[in-house]
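User: Please run a holo structure prediction.
Assistant: Happy to. Please share the sequence and the ligand.
User: Here you go; the ligand is magnesium ion.
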Amino acid sequence: MAGVSQRYGDVTALADADLVIRRGELLAIVGPSGSGKSTLLNIMGTLSRPSGGTVRIDGHDVEDLSDRELSALRAGTIGFVFQQFHLSPGVTALDSVSDGLLYGGARRAERRAAAERALRRVGLGDRLRHEPHQLSGGEKQRVAIARAVLGGPSPASGTGGEGGGGGGEGPKLLLADEPTGALDSRSGAAVLELLHDLHRAGTTVVIITHDRDIAASLPREVRLRDGHIEHDARPPGGAPSRHAAPAPPGALPPSAPSPGAPSASSAPAPQDAPHRASAGGVR
Ligand SMILES: Nc1ncnc2c1ncn2[C@@H]1O[C@H](COP(=O)(O)OP(=O)(O)OP(=O)(O)O)[C@@H](O)[C@H]1O
Ligand SMILES: [Mg+2]
């Protein structure tokens, strides 16, 4: 993204942000409450269109895409774990997660098998048929995480047998807003390990966190303050993650964001557009 700003009335939530995230990176976004972290993540995930600046994702200039095209891009590319996650009342954990695969076209039995693996992976194997009101806050968050990572490049199977087994392609990009914020340290560590597995399998992973230890353990840390990127610590030598793949034609350039690109439109945010991460909070 280049020169990206987000204003809400007279509040500038994000100011002139330049950020290039390469394929296969794993990074933390940190900063005080209200510094613009969630705003940045929502823009990165094309859930909201910025007031100004250019956002390119997977080679697409977000400004050029209709809300429908953005929904399709999200459905095929991006998994979200929201800070405010909402699970639909009356829907079991298993259904909530397997519904996230509806876009992939997999059969119901395959979706449910993949959902069950993902739920077991986050430690909810004995909560498959619990509805939201029967789950703790941390358990609900883990359902949302299972849903977001489902179909990732086989991290959920644990057996390497996932390929096409209902998981679809999985997210190329996983955006997680305080994924461990509501968890005890043991569940938090399990979730973090899951995110590392996804990264190892090739997913680009962006994690907002207040946890200094988590942030320090990741290869890159972007720090926000008052809507500005005040610090961006890259790996020594500026090398991309060892998992970074070459960018396809039309993808973001490796270093400088494209200058002089047209500014993004201020069209209404596609907040109610359907996408695979709706368990995360925008249903
Ligand atoms: N829809 C909105 N309307 C008005 N102001 C908003 C809106 N969303 C965010 N803001 C403001 O923009 C600023 C940045 O908000 P944002 O949610 O990005 O912060 P954050 O860094 O994620 O904070 P936290 O750590 O508390 O989640 C805050 O001052 C917030 O009050
Ligand atoms: Mg936030």
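The radius of gyration is 18 Å.
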